[in-house]
Amino acid sequence: MKTLVTDIGLLVGIGTDIRKEGAAMSEVGCLKDAWLLIEDEQIVGFGTMADGLPSGVDLNWSAEGRMVIPAFCDSHTHAVWAGSREREFEDKIRGLSYAEIAANGGGILNSADLLHNTSEDELFEQSIERVLEMMAAGSGAIEIKSGYGLSTADELKMLRVIRRIRETVPAVVKSTFLGAHAVARGMSREDYVRLVCREMIPAVAAEGLADFADVFCEQGFFTVDDTAEILETAAKYGLRPKLHANQLAVSGGVQVGVANGALSVDHLERTTQAEIDCLKGSATMPTMLPGASFFLRDPYGNAKGFIEAGLGVALASDYNPGTSPSGDMRFVMALGCIRMRLTPEQAFNAVTVNSACAMDVSGIAGSIAVGKLANLIVAKPGFDTLGSLAYRYTTPFIDKVILRGKAI
Ligand SMILES: [Zn+2]
User: Fold this and answer.
1) Rounded CA gap, 79 and 98, in Å?
2) Is the pLDDT reported for residue 328 higher than 90?
3) What domains appear along the chain, each with residue ranges and CATH number?
């Protein structure tokens, strides 16, 4: 089945780069007055209307001058969770302490209790709603982490729900095992790390439930040594690292991530020149999560400094109940521009091709290229530049989302 989209006012994000770094982050391939040819799930051609249209198509529709961009890629989410932490939101506004918030049912450990008492079916029903919401907001590739289980059985339950989501939705879904999100109640850190390495990782690998392994390498959570031990174990089972690092303090997480060939190191609210030097020449994608900085009133990552140093940067939503309850990647792009001073082109590359790279899907998503999935956003009339998406950041801009060649 071949579908031809004609009269695209501006086709944005054309290119075959796997990642963009430094000055290339300011470059976005565009074509004015374009057509795009889709065969089944894939993009099979594009060109300008003036050059003439391909023949032998089954279906033909006009974009009526609208802008078309690749769907967003969200390389860092915790979209599977049980219940709500809205009460914690109000407690934080009222200035309650961490201990008081925990006593009221907040924090990761309480999320773990809630998840423990929620059936796999119910967890799926709650979580699929969030994934459908992210897709409607333009995300076509989504990474989802475990990490609210904190026991072998409950981590497996989360990962099975992620697998079921992957089998249900047209978005590309990648799964990350984050057993080392926090130390389970009543355990020492040493015992918990042993449980992660000796029991959880082998069990996860035996069912083929995860693509990646993640550790919360942060002050007060898991040390650099714990992280290295977990990542080395994960590597033996074929799980590539993605890491939480440098959210709460300069943790050494970037260095241990790069040393272990991490696909990405994520958060990076606090970094120094040493982190930039370490990332240079590595395959690791620095990933910043401005939605968490916004929600927590934390510093924003130094994306501009990283790019000026020649690095690439990805942006992701960190969609989770405690610190970033939004999976809207257009808002993430806007925060990139407004709070991190990225240009619209830099922010766009950060939420598309580079975020695809950070979840190892840039071969099939993140740009307009022959052979990639036809994951597209058709913008509403009036949104005809990348800057307009970030500038009018609460005005609905999506006319339609197309995933795997079909409107959702
Ligand atoms: Zn996270």
Assistant:
1) 23
2) yes
3) 2-70+366-407 (2.30.40.10), 73-357 (3.20.20.140)
Question: Distance from the CA of 75 to the center of ligand 1, in angstroms?
Answer: 10
- 77 C-alpha to center of ligand 1: Å? 6
Enter the pTM of the model.
0.97
Give the C-alpha separation, 158 to 137, whole Å: 23
Pick left, alpha or beta for residue 13 (phi over 0 → left; psi -120 to 50 → alpha; otherwise beta): left
pLDDT at 88: 87
Q: How far is the CA of 266 from the centre of ligand 1 (A)?
A: 8
Secondary structure (H, E, C), the chain:
CEEEEEEEEEEEEECCCCCCCHHHHHCCEEEEEEEEEEECCEEEEEEEHHHCCCCCCCEEEECCCCEEEECEEECCCCCCCCCCCHHHHHHHHCCCCHHHHHHCCCHHHHHHHHHHCCCHHHHHHHHHHHHHHHHHCCEEEEEEECCCCCCHHHHHHHHHHHHHHHHHCCCEEEEEEEEECCCCCCCCHHHHHHHHHHHHHHHHHHCCCCCEEEEEECCCCCCHHHHHHHHHHHHHCCCEEEEEECCCCCCCHHHHHHHCCCCEEEECCCCCHHHHHHHCCCCCEEEECHHHHHHHCCCCCCHHHHHHCCCCCEECCCCECCCECCCCHHHHHHHHHHCCCCCHHHHHHHHCHHHHHCCCCCCCCCCECCCCECCEEEECCCCCCHHHHHHCCCCCCEEEEEECCEEC
Q: What is the 5 CA–ligand 1 centroid distance (Å)? A: 37
Q: What is the pLDDT of residue 85?
A: 87
Beta-carbon neighbours within 5 Å of ion ligand 1:
318
pLDDT value, residue 106 = 76
